[in-house]
Design goal:
The chain is of the alpha+beta class. It has one domain. The protein contains eight helices and 17 strands. The strands form four sheets. The chain has an eight-stranded antiparallel beta sheet. A five-stranded mixed beta sheet has the order 1-6-15-16-17, with helices on one face. The longest helix has 12 residues.
Length: 314
């Protein structure tokens, strides 16, 4: 079993419904996200059996071209190995007024309730069995040089024919500058088309008329006075869901569009309330997190001798 932690400013509907944000590139806080050395990648690709990869929409593309086009179709969920990092409590948990959720999972298992896998129809991989977008957290590597600059021959690409350019697309989101090493980050990397829920500020953002008509007549669209929410996970027909998901993924350059995944209730095992947080045990005792029968809840407090925090169970 592997234990990770998610820093949050507020619980929202995390414990009650199990939803966690899947952040697109435009919503990430590091302008170097998904950066890679194109020259070195092109040199690496020269050693592959095929120098191009297939995209269902654009046809044959070079690996670097595929990555640049599709990086806006990627979503990231970030976790940390460390629940006691004072910088992260300050930056990501609203100055210790927020919380940290504990995520426990089998190392080769998805952390989601029902991961949508039909995206193999729109990816460069040869079938679902080769998809890297499997809902399993992977550790981030930290380097001075961008991906492929100094390490292009450090990895095994023997299955690149089956994995396609999605292999490259996936791994560029798993490397960051070594200045971020204090975060001890693990990430789930998914296609945005796999999102279970999408929240948009206005239906006017949807340009495809067929999509708009389907949505307005559907049972999985609702409005809460500020935003429209589309529950894709309620759509049973996978091709209908995929068509709609593809249209919604195109909205990712707008950071006001939110994508969410629904966690398995068994993956949520504890909650750590910040030392300056007004949250109570009742605020985080949501029904989804309690489905499995256990949810440990702790409150942070200052250590009186060192610059550190401790936790006491509520």
């Amino acid at each position: 079993m592997k234990q990770l932690f998610k820093y949050m400013s507020q619980p929202r509907n995390f414990f009650e419904e199990g939803f966690i944000r899947l952040s697109q590139l435009s919503a990430l806080n590091d302008p170097f996200e998904a950066a890679f050395c194109q020259k070195s990648l092109d040199e690496l690709v020269e050693h592959f059996d095929y120098s191009e990869s297939w995209d269902p929409e654009f046809g044959q593309l070079s690996y670097s071209k595929y990555v640049k086009i599709r990086m806006n179709n990627i979503g990231v969920i970030s976790f940390s190995e460390n629940k006691e990092n004072l910088l992260m409590w300050a930056h990501y948990a609203n100055e210790h007024k927020g919380l940290v959720a504990g995520i426990l999972y089998l190392e080769q298992s998805s952390i989601f309730e029902n991961l949508f896998k039909a995206t193999s129809y729109i990816s460069s991989t040869m079938g679902r069995q080769w998809s890297l977008f499997n809902g399993i957290p992977k550790p981030v590597s930290y380097r001075k040089g961008m991906r492929y600059r100094n390490d292009k021959f450090d990895y095994d690409y023997s299955n690149i024919i089956s994995e396609g350019a999605d292999r490259i697309l996936y791994e560029i989101f798993l490397q960051k500058s070594d200045e971020w090493i204090y975060e001890q980050e693990h990430r789930v990397i998914l296609r945005l088309e796999q999102a279970d829920r999408v929240s948009i500020p206005s239906l006017d953002l949807i340009e495809n008329q067929q999509t708009l008509e389907k949505l307005t007549k559907s049972q999985f669209l609702f409005f809460d006075s500020k935003k429209y929410t589309i529950d894709l996970y309620k759509i049973e027909d996978e091709f209908e869901r995929l068509f709609l998901a593809m249209q919604l993924a195109k909205l990712s350059p707008n950071p006001e569009v939110f994508y969410f995944m629904k966690l398995s209730s068994s993956a949520i095992n504890n909650c750590l309330i910040g030392l300056n947080s007004p949250l109570t045990k009742a605020d985080v005792s949501g029904k989804h997190a309690r489905k499995t029968g256990y949810l440990d809840i702790w409150k942070a407090r200052k250590n009186l001798d060192y610059y550190s925090i401790e936790f006491e169970e509520l």
